Amino acid sequence: MKLFKSLFSQFHASIVVFAAMNILLGIALSLSTPYFSKVALIHLIAGVLIIPVPLLLLLFMKKRKLAWQAFAARMVISKKDSKNYLLLTAKITAWLFLLSLVFSAFAGIFIKTGLAAEFFPDANLLLLHTKVIYVVPFLLIVHILTMGAAYHKKVSN
Predict the structure, then answer these.
(1) What is the pTM of this model?
(2) Under 8 Å between Cβ of 44 and 112
(3) Which of 33, 40, 129, 144 could form a disulfide with 28 if both were Cys (CB 3.0 to 4.6 A apart)?
């Protein structure tokens, strides 16, 4: 099994763990779980850690230059991606997914600290934070399907 052998796959796994935890906990919170306060606390901690942990992982890797290059190669949209629409779609959905996670993390921090009411008195950041849960799984599914299709290698007999 070649999972987690490359530097990018290790970085990717750290994002996947925190993102999956946050998505599942967010869904549980939207369904009014009986352990609401405990789930909300874990959701908060995982949401705060989703930004620094992958960056710290990149900083403390032995071959961090290669990891940054792999990250740039897989995430930067280039001209050659326009020829492979599946890969282009996968990269765009990855960026949208990443931006939605960062937005949700910052919105959650702003809500929890009270800065949302201070800086954005006319905006309902809590509503935006909770409604992102409907977009994120769709982006995740599209990303997985398009990445799988873009890198699918046909086996010839």
Answers:
(1) 0.77
(2) yes
(3) 33
